[in-house]
Amino acid sequence: MCFLGSLACSSKTGKLLSPEGVVQFTKYSSNMGIASEVIGNIPTTGYSVDDVKAAVQALEGSRNITEKDVDDIYEILTHRHMYQINSYSRDTIETDLHSEGNPKLPPIGTRVRRAPNWPYNGQDSNTCGTVVGHNHRDLNLSIEWDTSMIFPYHFDTDGDLGRSNVVVCDEPRILLQREKIAVGCLVQRGPDWKWFDQDGGEDNVGSVYRVKDDKTVHVRWPNGNKSNYRFGYDGKYDVSICDPFDEVIRRRIEEQQKSWHKMINDSKKVVSNDGIGISFSKEGRNSTLTITIGIGRGMVETGDSVIKASENVLEMNDSSDEARRESRAIEYKDEASGGGEDTDLNNEDNNSLWQWKNEQGNWVYYPKSENDKIQKAHEKNSRGTILVRVNGDLYRVVLSKMIQINISSRESQEIRRLS
Q1: Where does the record place the MIB/HERC2 domain (predicted)?
Q2: CB-count exposure of residue 148 (10 Å: 0-12, 13-18, 19+)
Q3: Do 143 and 166 touch, CB atoms closer than 8 A?
Q4: How does pLDDT run across 9-20, given as a tens digit for each residue?
Q5: Cβ atoms of 254 and 272 closer than 8 Å
């Protein structure tokens, strides 16, 4: 092998090209861009060339993509971790990557999205991510995006949202087909739990911040304990996955996170996936919860400084059961209402029609009320989620994955948009 050939083969993703391969290599940059678009729509492991091909074909303007392009895109996705700023070892028991330091930083396991101050183009593939570690540098958070890529970012601990690269959000990790568990999933004690109160109590919910190939996972519990547990290792399950849409689990997570919110008072903002901003402030003996309706993703209100603030603000004392019921009704009023069998879609106001695929593989139109609801949610946040009702059943539509999940059975179905 020549000297240049040895250099190429010793680099991360280097390879020797034949004269015939030069023409295809000129498309590498564009194929890299396509890979960044589809990376969030395929499983992080166990995917095939056919999975990549299906994801590519779902893109608009994909007619000129050849089989060789698909092979290149598959190769790029297979070696995705080589394109990280730092290559982290995924084989050791624990690394410095997963350490925690400043208590004002979001704890490991916290879900985040890009902030208004986002200078990294499509590095996140417009997905959510999970905090997997704290750093003692300006880029003080290590985030693993749902694409399994890990990068460092800055989170301002003084409450200046204009300086933070990421913001805390409440969007759960959604598993794709063939995915059994992933970073960002919520877990509780499983059938083979034998670790006493390491989790802080039987009902506590932890967050997965690392998944290993040996069928073990690393979990951070709300009491700050972190450890590795069996999830299929020797057929044993120390932990089991929680349903992130279960109302009991959601309330429990909110309770667990209150200590961090109280610590940062009203200087931080949690941005929900449905555009509902939530902040916590402390006034005397009572803790006041402020919900700002209508603030989109990345639009925040902090003290006297308002960035695209909403006009509608509801304040309530979190010790009031009546106020809590009120807030819950407001949160779900627009999501869970309606959804009858109205199928009249011949309306000039409809710019887009939405369909879901039934068990027979046929595409079915949504009722008009639910179609409009999905379209409005898509216009507000093309990566968010929305609740819809179809044939009497409640579904969570996950726009980032183009699927709907039955709230009761947890079965998922494909959805699509017709422009």
Answers
A1: 173-245
A2: middle
A3: yes
A4: 555 566 677 777
A5: no
> Beta-carbon neighbour count of residue 216 at 10 Å?
18
Number of domains in the chain: 4
Query: What SS3 state is found at 4?
Result: helix
> What's the pLDDT tens digit per position in 87-100?
454 544 355 688 89
The span from the CA of 241 to the CA of 232, in Å, is: 12
Reported as type and span, the H/E element at residue 294 is: none
Q: Which residues contact 368 (CB under 8 A, 6 or more apart)?
A: 342, 343, 344, 345, 347, 350
Task: Check whether residue 400 and residue 272 sit in a common domain.
Answer: no
3-state secondary structure of 121: coil
Same domain? For 367 and 271 the reply is no
The DSSP secondary structure of 28-97, one letter per residue, reads HHHHHHHHHHHGGGS-SSS--HHHHHHHHHTSTT-TT--HHHHHHHHHHHHTGGGGSSS---SSSS--GG
Q: Which neighbouring-strand residues pair with 413?
A: 404
The chain-wide mean pLDDT, for the chain, equals 75
End of a domain among 59, 83, 107?
83
User: What span, in angstroms and rounded, lies between the C-alpha atoms of 210 and 191?
Assistant: 20
314/322 Cα distance (integer angstroms) = 13
pLDDT digits (tens, 9 = 90+) for 342-395: 344 444 344 689 999 998 989 999 999 899 999 988 888 887 888 888 988 888
Global pTM exceeds 0.85: no
Average pLDDT of the residues in 294-301: 34
Question: Which residues span the domain enclosing 285?
Answer: 265-336
The structure tokens 């997905």 sit at: 127
